[in-house]
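Example A, followed by Example B.
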Amino acid sequence: MVHLRLVEDTTAEDRRAALREPSRPRAVMLDAGDVTHAATIVDVSRLGLRLRSRVCLPTRTEIVIDPPSHTELAPIRGFIVRQFIQPETEDCLYEYGVQFADVDDDQRHRWFLLLRQAA
């Protein structure tokens, strides 16, 4: 007799509508209202990306991400949909899930193709 047990090991943050691809760490600037902050891209999907920054921004904050230097990408708008504090760092390091907002499919696709590590 075989006993099967369903084990749910997928955390809520790993359930995504689009596959995430690792990105080479890329420095970008975030425009959040009247202030600009430095951030690093961790990974990218066709619907958004994951960033790390030393600045605390609340979820639902609308941001404009300026592309990495030496690229022909246009800035892209998004919303912070997830925030996590990296506990193993000396200083506070925040990790953000960003969902692209109201941008056309071509622009999202260009960001994805340029930033994914497999390219």
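Example B, a separate protein, is given below in the same form.
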Amino acid sequence: MARVFWTDRARDRFDLLPEIVQNLINQHLVFVEQWPEMDPEVMDPPHWRGHRKFLVRRQWLVLYRVKKGASPDQDQVYVAEIVPARSNY
């Protein structure tokens, strides 16, 4: 199972979100811990290439990066950013 880490920026945004959105993000991250590469990779913009993304309530886009370990137990997931879904990230 992968370990999930948060950037300060992502954690700050998370703390400002409504509780229901926080719960939905946390529920999705439970699956990401099991299958870190389950979500699609970001292709644009270039500075987010290599990150993965998932949408929450069609309002928020959560971007994360997977760092593969020597075994699945050593995989790491870094939640990099939470942005409004219609922004240019």
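On Example B: Residues 3-84 form a domain with the YaeB-like fold fold (CATH 3.30.2310.20).
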